[in-house]
Design goal:
Length: 271
């Protein structure tokens, strides 16, 4: 579905003869339901493809011990869908989130939009989805209030679904200027962000709205799904013609890379 079976790895001229070496292009294959990477695949590209776990199992059984062969990869490609990343839309909603996070913290989800039951019947797109409420209130357990539902996948792994039915692989929210007396904002993600990231196993990104005017470029901080923080990965895109623009950051790709490598086994929710 839209990818080449082979890729050129060397092209040169020796004694007037052109030599071209090719190899099978092996993409990263992930489960269409949970997003978990299939560990038997040894990718040599950075492209992602989703495939139903049953289809993958059939090919794995047919090509036992040789799943990375050209013939096996060709069959996997026919049964899978390439994943694209809509960075433009993600950047749009991130900027909107920074603009809106004045008195309270607005949030958006980073999601994988797909048809997990029949992956080849619809595009697979990493994009952003607005929440129906802000992150103003925290839960009793100290985590971020998110309107997502936790499920158990057919592969035994846990995953979250957004209000629009998409696979949640990350969350972005703005850090507004504190409204509490004698308190100041500090850079980076919060303890609540860290706790939420670890509990859900996906990255949480915070925008420095507290030091940025509406329409400006807000710095992006992160805590990953294992609780490891990172400061100032990039900035939101800001106004179209803003002078001295700072680089943005590909949140969609970053969230997808982490999630697919670290999908966790489903754990029964506490009552």
């Amino acid at each position: 579905m839209g990818t080449n079976t082979f890729q050129v790895i060397y092209k040169g001229t020796v004694m007037g003869e052109t030599t071209i070496k090719v190899q099978t292009a092996i993409d990263i294959y992930i489960d269409s339901q949970t997003g978990n990477r299939f560990k038997e695949i040894k990718p040599n590209t950075e492209n992602y493809r989703i495939i139903h776990s049953m289809d993958y199992a059939d090919v794995l059984e047919e090509f036992s011990g040789n799943i990375n062969s050209g013939e096996a990869i060709k069959k996997l490609q026919e049964m899978s869908q390439k994943v694209t990343i809509d960075d433009t839309f993600i950047q749009t909603l991130m900027q909107k989130t920074q603009n809106n996070s004045r008195l309270s913290e607005y949030q958006v989800y980073i999601v994988l939009q797909r048809n997990w039951i029949d992956p080849i019947e619809a595009p697979a797109i990493v994009t952003a989805e607005e929440d129906t409420h802000t992150k103003l209130y925290e839960r009793e357990d100290g985590e971020i209030m998110m309107n997502i539902i936790y499920y158990k996948g057919k592969d035994g792994n846990g995953y979250n679904i957004s209000p629009n039915g998409h696979l949640v692989i990350g969350q972005v929210h703005g850090h507004n200027k504190t409204q509490e007396h004698n308190m100041i904002n500090i850079e980076g993600t919060s303890n609540r962000d860290k706790k939420t990231a670890i509990a859900n196993g996906f990255n949480i990104y915070s925008l420095r709205a507290y030091e940025t005017n509406v329409g400006g470029q807000a710095g992006i901080d992160k805590v990953d799904g294992k609780g490891v923080p990172s400061l100032l990965l990039g900035s939101t895109r800001g106004r179209p013609n803003e002078p001295d623009k700072r680089p943005t950051f590909d949140v969609g790709r970053d969230a997808l890379d982490f999630w697919t490598k670290n999908v966790k086994v489903w754990v029964r929710p506490k009552k």
